[in-house]
Amino acid sequence: MADNDKIKIGKAKGRPMLTWVGKRPLTSVKAYPAQHIETFSAGEGDLSHALGDVDWSDWPDSYPQGGLLFHGDNKDVLAHLLANGFRGKVKLIYIDPPFDSGADYVRKVQLRGVGGTTKIDGEEYTLGEQIQYEDIWANDSYLQFMYERLLMLRELLSEDGSIYLHCDARRSALLRLVMDEVFGAERFRNDISWIRTASHNDTTGRFSKVKDTILFYSKGDKPIFNTTYLPYSEQYIEGEWNKLPSGRYYKYENMLDPQGKMASFDFHGTTARWRTSKGEMEKLWNMPQTEVPKSHGRIKLGKNGFPVKRCRIVFLDELPGVQLSDHWSDISYIAGRAKEAVGYPTQKPGALLERILRSSTNPGDLVLDCFAGSGTTAVAAQKLGRRWLCGDINKGAIQTAAKRLQQLLNEQAEGDKVVRQSELPMESDDSRTLPAQFAFATWRVNDYDLQIQHNEAVQLACDYMGVTRSRADSYFDGSRSGRLVKIVPFNHPLTPLDLEDLRAELHRRPEEERDIELVCLGIEFNARAWVEDYNRNRPVNKLHIIELRTDKKYGGFIKHEPLTLSASAERDGDTLRVTINDVLSPGILQRLNLEQGVFRAQIEDWRAVVDCILIDPDYDGEVFNVVLSDIPARKQDMVEGHYELPAPREGATVAIKVIDMLGEEAILTQPV
């Protein structure tokens, strides 16, 4: 099927049906092509043995066998997957979408160095915060946003597949109704409460919020499900069980038929309606003798030596534990100092994802997360021998996920760390599960690769220009000097279409009389004429354009100077030697100047601005194949800067990729 064909989406058939302003069915979507950006393969030599019994026969020929990481709007990503052979093949979907919280989610950005800071002219500075995404929605657009994606996700699920939707109290009731409509109320399995074990500071006039909700639905009526058991509590053990001198716990189980439907029979001198057959009772009688007093095999005996009616002996250490309920309070949230913390907002603990994967998948199954964030779902799937597909609209999320996966795959390829095991007690043991893959590829859908994130650009522009942000306004970004301010996305110039959207918004606000400031990067000729015509003889809502590249007062603020690096690569026999000489990050210097007021800040060690370094010794000009990755394990550690690896073929092109602490990339190529 061609990428640009319309992909049909089935109707939602469930009841009840929730209504909202602007609700519309999604009958088809357009599929866009994907560009292969980067490939990473762990270890050296042939690692195909690690694929174990994984069946790749259902895998589309257009993709290499391995994990797939997609950068793009997840609506485009899902349409692409549907068009390219993944329909009905996903066993588990976990999504942690925006909660409609009205908040900006930021990650702390620090220069590398001791304590997460670096010295600039003798003083220490950090880079503050970088906006990852805004969780702000207009009217009912949030429900339409989720409705469309859930319809597409249902098409990707297999008949025995399941979906887990992570949300909180703000929208959980509405999302459950949407899920009922899309999947059918009869496919509802659980409303899981995850107790984060830490309260928020939001207790004015109400109880503290300590839980999230995870809605669990299946595609069909017979989903994959592996029962999870947890240890019994000490209180339960002490109250219900007897302790032998050896320390072993036991108790007696009633063997009478509770409904009185079984036929009565004599069992070694005791006649009763036993709850099981005489043959099964004999098996208990003939089992090896235990240290329980007055017993025969696993049968308790009375004073006369005959079996008593409450006679079966059960040992605690032979039971799997208590079945996991829908109340999860044993998995803590990720604190700032947690070992697995990567500084990404809303990061979920790996133990939470591992529990979900163990419950609803088997080794080799395919897992999908289209709100991937820091990549925890992919990491959990990789650890547990599952195949995975993940995507995110945020480039910083893709970079964070890729780094985590590269580190994990390298550890798994060492051989003695095939799979890290969850620390959760009594859950199913995957210790013999080999990784499903030792490679993954990064793809970009619909050419989604903006040089600057719009959300962060809005914040920086507002800070620089003195705009007061308005979180409650779904359209305008804020106000300044009595005017409303709208910042046009910086990935395109101001167009007549943007202006028509503005006209429609003002038409919905007949009481609004303030003038409007439009902040943009570039203006189409037709747009300038549109503004002049609009402003002619207009007493209210006049438009004022601030074009950031040419404005006398604000010009140069958003001028983008790319990351640059100086490096060398030379062949020495069978060895390739790569040396990074210098890295200059104008974006980081600009942020330091803006936020810290440092005049012409100078960074003494270029490694402080570098997040990671990747090397492809035989670059083909299109796909970057990561052969060497230098990703410091700790925030205070720095990259090496000097590398040796096997020399490539004669005439090959070496490519060196550097990613700075703000997520900007630069690639230098050199023939050797």
Give structural notes.
The chain is an alpha+beta fold and 672 residues long. It has four domains: 6-102 and 137-222 and 326-442, Rossmann fold; 232-320, no CATH class; 454-547; 564-671, Immunoglobulin-like. 20% of the residues lie in helices and 29% in strands. It has twelve helices and 38 strands. The strands form ten sheets. It has an eleven-stranded mixed β-sheet, sandwiched between helices.
At a glance:
With 672 residues, this protein is an alpha+beta fold. It starts with 5 loop residues before the first strand and ends with a strand. The model is unreliable at 101-106, 118-126, 131-136, 416-428, 448-452 and 595-600 (pLDDT under 50).
Domain unit count:
4
CATH topology of the largest domain: Rossmann fold
- Strand ordering within the main sheet: 22-11-12-10-5-23-24-4-25-3-34
Could you tell me the number of beta strands? 38
- Oligomeric state of the chains present here: single chain
Distance between the termini: 41 Å
Structural class: alpha+beta
Mind describing the biggest β-sheet?
11 strands, mixed
CATH top-level class of the largest domain: Alpha Beta
Uncertain runs with pLDDT below 50, 5 residues or more? 101-106, 118-126, 131-136, 416-428, 448-452, 595-600
Radius of gyration: 30 Å
Global outline: globular
Features:
672 residues; alpha+beta; Rossmann fold; 4 domains; eleven-stranded mixed sheet; five-stranded antiparallel sheet; 38 strands; globular
Q: Which helices and strands appear, and what pairs or packs with what?
A:
Blueprint (H helix, E strand, L loop, with lengths): L5 E3 L19 E3 L3 E8 L25 E5 L2 H10 L6 E6 L7 E6 L9 E3 L2 E3 L3 E7 L5 H16 E11 L4 H12 L4 E8 L15 E8 L10 E2 L3 H7 L1 E2 L5 E5 L11 E3 L2 E3 L5 H8 L9 E2 L2 E3 L5 E9 L6 E2 L3 E2 L21 H11 L5 E4 L6 H8 L3 E6 L2 H19 L25 E7 L8 H12 L2 E2 L8 E3 L2 E5 L8 H12 L8 E5 L4 H11 L7 E5 L16 E9 L2 E10 L1 H11 L13 E7 L7 E3 L1 E3 L11 E5 L6 E8 L4 E7 L1
Parallel strand pairs: 3-34, 4-24, 4-25, 5-10, 5-23, 11-22, 23-24, 28-29, 29-30
Antiparallel strand pairs: 1-2, 3-25, 6-9, 7-8, 10-12, 11-12, 13-21, 14-15, 15-20, 16-17, 18-19, 19-20, 26-27, 27-28, 31-32, 32-36, 33-35, 33-37, 37-38
Helix pairs in contact: 1-2, 2-3, 6-7, 7-8
